[in-house]
Structure formats: structure tokens, C-alpha cells
Amino acid sequence: MPRMKIETKIKELGFTLPDVPKPVASYIPAVKTGNLVFTAGMLPMVKGKLAYNGKVGADVSLEDGVKAAEISLLNGLAAIKGVAGDLDKIVKVVKLSGYVNSASCFTDQPKVLNGASELLLKIFGDAGKHARIAIGVNELPLNACVELDIIVEVKE
Amino acid sequence: MPRMKIETKIKELGFTLPDVPKPVASYIPAVKTGNLVFTAGMLPMVKGKLAYNGKVGADVSLEDGVKAAEISLLNGLAAIKGVAGDLDKIVKVVKLSGYVNSASCFTDQPKVLNGASELLLKIFGDAGKHARIAIGVNELPLNACVELDIIVEVKE
Amino acid sequence: MPRMKIETKIKELGFTLPDVPKPVASYIPAVKTGNLVFTAGMLPMVKGKLAYNGKVGADVSLEDGVKAAEISLLNGLAAIKGVAGDLDKIVKVVKLSGYVNSASCFTDQPKVLNGASELLLKIFGDAGKHARIAIGVNELPLNACVELDIIVEVKE
Questions:
Q1: Fewer CB within 10 Å of terminal CB in chain A, N or C?
Q2: How far is CA C142 from the centre of its chain?
Q3: Which chain C residues are within 8 Å of A104, Cβ to Cβ?
Q4: What is the domain-level CATH number for residue A112?
Q5: Which residues pair with A53 in a beta bridge?
Q6: Using CB atoms within 10 A of its CB, is residue A115 exposed (0-12), middle (13-18) or buried (19+)?
Q7: At what angle do helices C62-84 and C109-124 cross, to 10 degrees?
């Protein structure tokens, strides 16, 4: 039985792959080099507006931080589709780096980023198993609550 | 018509490629693996001294932050030249990661990093189009106002 | 004379390679793609518990920050061994990215990360010379004092 198409899987999970995110400055959403695709930093943008902003642990709840990580991930997948042509070209997810706009004493960055990590596992199965780093920071562009970038391996 | 040499282009734009930056600790300025070159973190150093330090949005203006990003980028290109031998070996710029020492409530990290991104476009044209992440942080080495690293693809 | 086995060298230096670190959330410790291995973010965990937590420059001394960087590095090497099979497969260390949980005005992130960088040089010699970025941040997962990730090149 052939694997379900990745975009179909995303829809079945109740999510929608957005249009390729428009960079907020002078760069492009993703670049392919050899078999790797590196994305730009992805914010929780929905139709060009930040869905969640402020610091997690103060302005933004952990639950909303998780949703923001999911949205950012979907933007990242859209960026990858933009250069790879098709998400079914992804052989494996290599690395997710996530930055959480963190209130003082907020140390649950891993739980926030699980929004993105668990969605990768649901969408890609074993191929979605990735290395990850979660970091807390004091400020992010446009006061976004989370930002992430992704490296994936694609087939030619 | 052959492409102008990259170092000539840098001069024509009014900038000077510095000497390879001296690391501030136990590492080297750049490493080549396969067709990729990864640089170390680059600070806005001019002749071994920080040109701009402190937090953007408080001690350092946005305009000076932009200049600091340009200087850091030139240091990064010097580091790449050190391992690639010649900047004309660069096939494309893959990824720029930029960290801005950010005053509380400063959220214009993308504008700061545009100093580096726009210079890449001016120097390399289409080959300079890169993925980028901009992050705000509360402290940087030596109290630098910006730090960045670069990944580029080079030919053998 | 054949090179001493890397794990023997680690022991001779007075360190112990730990078990593969257990991720604190939904990801895996390291991923191999082509000839590169990317690790997840590594914390200064010893047998599942953080050895040092809090902010360097306030709760944690510079000396203890250095030790925390050493521990995090050893966890990273264990993660690489987990996917590469053997640390002797490492051709060179490419990049070390280090994040230091930093008290206000603490700007000696490079000295903290030297704990990891100098250990890499001792273990791997010339093959341990790496590019590095050191960043200060206001919060880290579980209130760890340092977090780092590593990219290495391995042979097939």
C-alpha cells in the first residue's frame, strides 16, 4: 500500500498547509543545497498576521505557545514545499531549532516546541523523528512568541 | 561577460574585506565539510576591536545595529575565504543566523539583520539569496550588539 | 602507529562517556544525513539529573559553567555514538553552537564554551578543530545553565 500523500495526511490531521510564508525582511523562505533544505526562521503567522505574540509564561499560555509552534511548523513545511516542489520529496526531518520568547523563570521551552515536534511525528511517522534544540530568548521579531527553523533531507 | 570577481564587487560597493577574524576563544573561524562551509559566530570587530557594543534599542541605535551587521558579515566572508581560498568559489549563500543583543521590548531584529542580508544580495546577486533566522538575546560575547554565522555552498 | 581509540582517549583524559542522553521531549538525540550528524540540544545532565542549573554570572560560577559545558559535550558525543556506532567514525567536528543561561551583564559566554571546545581538541586533536558560536540567553530548558549542539562529519 503506497504511503498517503503528505498533504493529504496534514489535512486528515485537521491542519491546513498555508501559502509559502512571506519573509518579513530581505531573505527567502528556504534554500536547497545538495540533499538538504534549510528554512528561514518561521513565526506563528496566519494569513500575514501573528496569531500569538508576547512572552510565553506571561502574555501567552503554555497551551497557546504549543499552538503557535504548530502554526510555525506548518509555515516551515510550506517553505520547504516551495523549494522542493512536493512534501513527499522529504526523506527525513533532520533538525528543528526552536526559540521561545520567554518570561523570566519560564523554563518549559521543550513543552512549547513539542507542538511542532509531535506534529512532525504525526505527519511523517518515523521519517519525522528529528534532532531538536529548544532555547529561551528575551525578544523575538515582531514580538512573536515562538520562532523555529527546520533542516530536512530531500530526494533529488 | 564574466562575472566581476567578488572581492572587486565588495570594493566597488565601498566595503573592504578584512583579514580573517581572530577567534575570541578555542575554535577556528570556519570549517568546510563536503560542499558546505560553516562559519563561527562573527562579531562586529574592526581590527580586533568591537565597533559597536551594547543593546540595540538602548545603547545602540537601529542604524548602528545595521552597520554592525554589515561588519560582522564581512568578517564572515573573510572567514569563508580563509577555508575556500577564494570568494568566487561560493555557489550560493545557504543560511544566515543572526543574534541581536536586544533591549527589553526591541523587536526589530529583522531590520538589524537586513544590514547583512542586503549586503549579501548586493555582493552575490541571485546567489546571495539566503534563508535567515533573526533572534533577540539578552547578552552576547564581549557585549557585542550583534553576532551572526553563515552557511554557504562552495564548488570543489 | 594507529590512532588511539577515541573512547580510550576520553577515559585517559579522566572523563567517562555517558549513556545516550534521554531527550526531555518528543525528539531523538541525533540524526545522520549524508556524512553529517546533527545532535539535539545537550544539557549538563548526569544520570538523568541536571548537574548545574541557574544563570552563569549569578547562580553558577564561571568555573562551574565550564564544567557544565564539558558534561554537555560528553552527552553530545554519546548521542553521536548512538547514530554513528563508533566515535572513531568522526572525520572532523564541524560546528559547535552553545547557549549560556546568562545573568544580566555576563558576557563571558566564550570562556564557558571553552569547556566544550578545549575538550574536543584534547579528544580529537586536529580533527576536533571546529567553528563555534556562543550566545547568551535569558532562559534555558529546566533552568539548565548551558545547552549546546554539535555537527560532525562522519565516514560511511
A1: N
A2: 17
A3: 138-139
A4: 3.30.1330.40
A5: A144
A6: buried
A7: 40
Mutation site for B-interface testing, chosen from A24, A39, A138 by largest number of B Cβ within 10 Å: A138
Note whether residue C61 is domain-resident: yes
Match 520547504 to its residue by C-alpha cell: A80
Separation of alpha carbons C44 and B69, rounded Å:
32
- Residue C101: give the domain boundaries: 31-154
Contact A135 C40 (CB under 8 A): no
ipTM: 0.94
Decide: C46 and C15 in contact? Cβ < 8 Å: no
The tally of domains found in chain B comes to 1
Asked whether residue C20 is domain-assigned, the answer is: no
Q: Please answer whether residues B138 and C139 qualify as being in contact, where contact means their C-beta atoms are separated by less than 8 angstroms.
A: no
Q: Which member of C31, C99, C140 has the closest CB to residue A130?
A: C31
Average pLDDT value over all residues in chain B: 95
C-alpha cell of residue C117: 571546545
Q: Which three cell numbers stand for residue C84?
A: 554513528
Angle at C95 between CA C31 and CA C67, to 5 degrees: 95
d(CA B35, CA B155): 6
Give the best residue of A93, A102, A109 to mutate against chain C (max C CB count within 10 A). Answer: A109
Q: Backbone dihedral region of C14: left (phi > 0), alpha (psi from -120 to 50 degrees) or beta?
A: left
Domain presence at residue C13: no
Give chain B's length. 156
Alpha helix segments (H runs only) across chain C? 6-12, 62-84, 109-124
pLDDT tens string C83-137 = 999 999 999 999 999 999 999 999 999 999 999 999 999 999 999 999 999 999 9
Subunits with at least 3 CB pairs below 8 A relative to chain C? A, B
